[in-house]
Predict the 3D structure of the following.
Amino acid sequence: MMRVMCLPYAGAGAGLYRPWKGLSNDRVQAVPLQLPGREEQFSRPFYPTFAEAVTDIAGRTVEAARGEPFALFGHSFGGLLAFEAARHLHESGGPLPDRLLVSGARSPRQRGYTALSDDEEEAVASLKQDARRGFEALDNPELRALLLPVIRADIRLLEEYGDARNPVAGPLPVPLTVLRGTADTVATAESSTDWKNFTSVDHTELEMPGGHLYLLDHMPELWRVIEEQLCP
């Protein structure tokens, strides 16, 4: 059994990957990892720093793997968390994933993350411009009051990660699959290709139709891709 630890994009919860639970089988099983401050962990404080997020996720990954083979999958913000969790495990002598799958994420040295505007309307407009899909709930004032603080908390961690003082990681001895939507203007083709510098072994690049949050429209197809990458 290969367990796939799944990390969501900024502002999203692990419920995003619920469809994959139903598609899991005796070879590959989806294990969504919930981040604090959302869904069933709504009352838990947000991660205070990117480093603390990575340490916690790495520990929870090992715990959820239960000594079995595992992979790490993350989209956008979640892709960087997955990569840095694998890096943390490598540097601390922990077990390594059989494969790292990053989706819709810029490579670790293409940073340039900017703060979300303090003005709510401008912030929502910026999110919709980048993603074009996935933030429709922000049009509802009540849902916006719940969701926008979560998004801001995650983007603050991205800003910290993007600080030039944060050293860029070297390559990991972990096979790497990089995925993106063909129309993604956030994780560009150039940025996706740059991921090849962050593995010392196998590197695969794949594209699917759609923009930055292409996965929302292709969950079953994306799961099949993951299965093929892990169990060819």
Notes: The radius of gyration is 16 Å. The longest strand covers residues 2-7. Residues 70 and 82 are 12 Å apart (CA to CA). Residues 2-109+168-226 form a domain with the Rossmann fold fold (CATH 3.40.50.1820).
